[in-house]
Structure prediction request, 1148 residues.
Amino acid sequence: MIRAVIVMNTQGKPRLLKFYEFQPPEKQQELTRSVFAVLSGRPDNVSNFVETDAIFGSGTRLVYKHLATLYFVFVFDSCENELAMLDLIQVLVETLDRCFKNVCELDIVFNFNKMHTILDEIIFGGQVLETSSERVLKAVEEISRLEKSSSSVSFVPKSVSGRFGR
Amino acid sequence: MEQLKTIGRELAMGSQGGGWTGQSKEFLDLVKSIGEARSKAEEDRIILREIESLRRRIGEPDVPRRRMKEYIIRLVYAEMLGHDASFGYIHAVKMTHDDSLSLKRTGYLAVTLFLSDDHDLIILIVNTIQKDLRSDNYLIVCAALTAACKLINEETIPAVLPQVVDLLAHPKEAVRKKAVMALHRFYQRSPASVSHLISNFRKRLCDNDPGVMGATLFPLFDLITADVNSYKDLVISFVSILKQVAERRLPKVYDYHQMPAPFIQIKLLKILALLGSGDKQASGHIYNVLGDIFRKCESSSNIGNAVLYECICCVSSIYPNAKVLDAAAESTSKFLKACLLFSDSHNLKYMGIDALRRLIKINPDIAEEHQLAVIDCLEDPDDTLKRKTFELLYKMTKSTNVEVIVDRMIDYMISINDNHYKTEIASRCVELAEQFAPSNQWFIQFSVSNNFTFQTMNKVFEHAGDLLNVRVAHNLMRLIAEGFGEDDEGADSQLRSSAVNSYLRILGEPKLPSLFLQVICWVLGEYGTADGKYSASYIIGKLCDVTEAHLCNDTVKAYSISAIMKICAFEITAGRNVEMLPECQSLIDELSASHSTDLQQRAYELQALLCLDSQAVESVMPLDASCEDIEVDRNLSFLNSFVQQSIEKGARPYSPESERSGTFSVSNYKSQYQHEASSHTLRFEAYELPKPSPTPATPQISVSTRTTDLVPVLETTYYTENNQASKLPPVSDASSADHGIKLHLDGVQKKWGRPTYSSSSSSTSSSEKKTNGVTHIDGVRSQSRGTLYDTKGQQSEVTAEKQKLAASLFGASAGKNEKKPASTQRVPKANTVTAERPGVPRAISPEISKQKAASSPPPDLLDLGEPITTTTPTIDPFEQLEGLIGPTPGPSTLDNSVTTSEQKAPDLMALYTDTPPSSSSSISSALGDIHSTDKNSQMAKNVPSIKKGPNPQDSLQKDATARHVGVTPTGNNPNLFRDLLG
Prediction:
């Protein structure tokens, strides 16, 4: 099963943490830090897989993808296929991209609750639920439509900009 | 995803995604200020301020619901950054009760992130979840299922179970899917509570919706893992589902990157691998569909490769079938060769190496073809890939290549900093060294492999000493002490003296791990003077140096002083006079005043020992008795007569502690044990003084304390025993020492020093190319590999040393699966004759390498039962290694080739005279069924060589000419490879 999904930026700041086995906050921070330490030590053009026995326990591995300023990290055990997990990251990123139209780190910072919604449609209780970004998007839009109908919307002002993402 | 690029990009969320319930200005400001924070401390300050304000505001009486939602989201954010937000948990729980979908979902999200499944607040949520599972709005149901998945624990499962089971028949497929998965989660939590519902999973396998069917595979996978046999009936269904999926019978929506439902395929393949494992009948159903997938699956996309990899895993797990095995091998080689085609080749290489690891279990020959690819991976900058490759090598280790592999592992171990993996690889090295050391049964092999073990251990110790278990050190000592376990005293003493030699050399190194020092001290004490090469005073001097150089460590000191004691004892026993060196005397003086009672004890023991006469000393410290069993007489019954005498002389009889007052017992040294337990009765100021020192090995101290006091008694038997006991290493943590020290093993380095293939070889190999005819090898090899290595062959820069490494790693892999127990029985005898030749090497250096070269043929012969073809290539590695490492390749290699040929002639003759009939017949019988099923090229290759077997003259001649042609042993490769592959 998938143990955790971690999205963090290249400075090691967590942008989304989802552990499918409960971890107390301090432990989450510690794990994130060790994952970041491993990832930041890896050169470019090497494989996307890392064995993480030392961090998450024996038999665990992680697959990561480095996109722009973000690391997308999936941690899983021996029941999953590494290449397939790599594609699952692809599904997540594709969905985010469709959802936010040219997704960037800032979108994820401000909408991490939406990101959770998307992730919940893709992974359920540590198992792969859906791999078609189209269907995920449809489900998420359905949710937002129903949510909107029951509440008014307050938009984030367009003008906000600046150096974020550290 | 190149669109994901800017960080400072204009944020335009309002226009996106059909309007999300965005966050307020405050949240925005918070995120912004955190983003602008210059340091971690500043960020923490901002968040703490935020948390303070949230704490204040969230507790206000009438917070609007929408406002509350935002607070909760901010809390989640704060907690993600590592700050405690527990004061808000209850508000998140309250929010789940809200009617609004948006608020309810936020509430559920917050609680699933905040709470563990045994949190006290869970009980407040169960009721809500129950209610929501019955909701008409399927989105609410989904949210509740998600929450249930995360929060419901063993005790609360029964509360929601009926609702979840009802949902299995929900009209919406999304809900059915999630219900199946929630049920699966419950099963994972507590299999017992849902055991009566397992049939539901089987039922859902036939769901109309492929998504639901796919979801069912997860619980079924778990169930099958737990109990394969009760699901054998499903093999046919799974196969037919897989077939339909692979034939694109599913709706287009399930395609992913032009692959039909790859995740479902992967899961099905995993399940089939479980079901087919070791089951010929079940596997029979699977072969066809596997063949189909191998054929159809395109390897250009990532996901296609994922499916292919899963097929290979499946093939390696089910009952072997030649045809699918071939297909799997072909896919594997595609992975490994992908390096040339794709940019993300590392991933494929990684998968390829892993696939290879799985396949060699069934057919070790497959690895042969990929020698160079494997070696490339070994030298790759990617750590993950390297580790995977080491795993592969670990799996294919055998007696012929163990040295090369362990050498490599040690090199890698030295180079990394990751302690976890360092420990792992160190223990693997030790394991391999131990495993391959005592397994062989004749003398030369013993000494070689034991020396090898020994060298390996030394290296492992030097670089990972502090990470290793003390047990490993004890094993090493035992190895040296027990030697080969048989009556080969000569070999034993040779090993020991070589141990002493190299340890004396190593002692010159500035910093050594304490565990390693302990071993060194122990060995020097036991065997330092055993072969008469070194004088006692020399060894004692060295041991004194150890204590000086490592002032801080009491354990090492203890080992050292004990070793000195042993040497003195041996000297006295031998009737020689022990003159005390001044530094030794000062060491004894220092230790007798030591804070550590253990050290004091040992120092006094030594002093007492020096006063005894030689006979007493001999029984106290018998020579080389470290392996004798010790029986401790706890009742001290041997003292009875002494006690009797004393009482008769008017001494007071012993009264048990219970009958004594506390004051009295203080004077009694025997109360050491009780001292701990009843310390409150013993707290007297005067007694307090010697206590403060931290003593690591309290129990030992008390044991040995007794012995000192007993010295004057001169009851020899007892004394011996106890000294033996005190000789045993006191257990204590190895304290700090440094890695990265280099061994200077001088002569040893030739064979055992770091091979440094990558660095040093570039210069040597180029010269070798011209002189030694290595280029020749290149040509022949690439020819023989035919099309597979075309590309490689053309690149003339495929370096010679890589080839050599390949040869040493894979040299004998061809025949591993044809192990002949019948011939193993016979061959050793033939070899022992040659083995016991007079010139038994004493030192580890060149002679041993010679020996190794000479002795490596036997294991091959054992392994293969087809002598000629494989013998020579397996000799090669070592010789090549020799040529590669040795500073002067010319003479040493010449020397080698002479010894080997000398050695081998009788060897082979002896072999041929008695093996051919049995071996050839057994081979053909073994090969029989493989031949019938499949005209495998590997097998075909072996046939001529078998025929050649009984004709020793021919092949020997060929061998001889080969040696004439090339001065170095590498020169004979061409001919032999032609034999092997042509």
